[in-house]
Design brief:
By secondary structure, the chain is an alpha/beta fold. It has eight helices and five strands.
Length: 207
């Protein structure tokens, strides 16, 4: 006798990445997950079905390749998001591995009929507390190189990218938690609304 496994709900939105993707910094919901930017984004876009958020605290691009990417591809959605790389840049940076992993992640997700969204990296080095000037300069260079590389992938692969590196609103301290790394609850709400607008524009352009 043959049987089928349980039918998984059809997701409209799947997100992979680190604690930014997870929603850390926002309030927790009844199920224990964070009411991060994806929650606000889904609400703005009118998504009522289940959202699959695989983001996890401390995840690097290698973690996403090793642990999250296959799960995301096994549960494909017409709208898929990636927020990852900050932990590589701050604590575990290997430029070649970093670029290779980003290309693997984005090329794996990009497919006809699917919209893949992301953000570039905001000016985290400027906000990290207690950082010596020399270390801050090193991190600024890493973040600049990362944004330059992602900036080349975006048009090549047709990604939708929210420009957090240059958005004036990201300079407002209310956007960020005291650790300088994670958006605050207000930051997640603003980012979610901005990403929804960007995705909506991209969808309209395809019609």
């Amino acid at each position: 006798m043959t049987g089928k496994g349980p039918t998984l709900p059809q997701h409209e939105l799947t997100v992979i990445g680190d604690s930014f993707a997870e929603g850390r910094g926002a309030a927790k919901q009844a199920d224990g997950s964070f009411a991060g930017f994806t929650v606000h984004m889904a609400q703005s876009l009118g998504i009522r079905g289940p959202v699959l958020n695989l983001g996890s605290y401390g995840a690097t691009t290698q973690d996403v390749v090793d642990r999250q990417l296959a799960a995301a591809l096994a549960n494909p959605a017409p709208l898929m998001g990636v927020i990852v790389g900050g932990n590589d840049l701050v604590t575990d940076y290997d430029p070649e591995r970093f670029r290779r992993n980003l290309r693997t992640i984005y090329t794996s997700l990009a497919a006809p009929g699917r919209l893949v969204f992301t953000t570039n990296w905001p000016r985290i080095p400027d906000r990290l507390p207690g950082l010596p000037d020399a270390a801050r300069a090193v991190l600024r260079q890493r973040f600049a190189e990362a944004n330059d590389y992602l900036g080349r992938l975006v048009p090549e692969l047709g990604l939708v990218c929210l420009d957090l590196a240059n958005a004036p609103v990201t300079a407002d301290p209310v956007m960020w938690c005291p650790d300088g790394m994670h958006p605050s609850a207000a930051g997640h709400e603003l980012i979610g609304a901005a990403m929804a607008d960007l995705v909506d524009e991209a969808r309209c352009a395809l019609l």
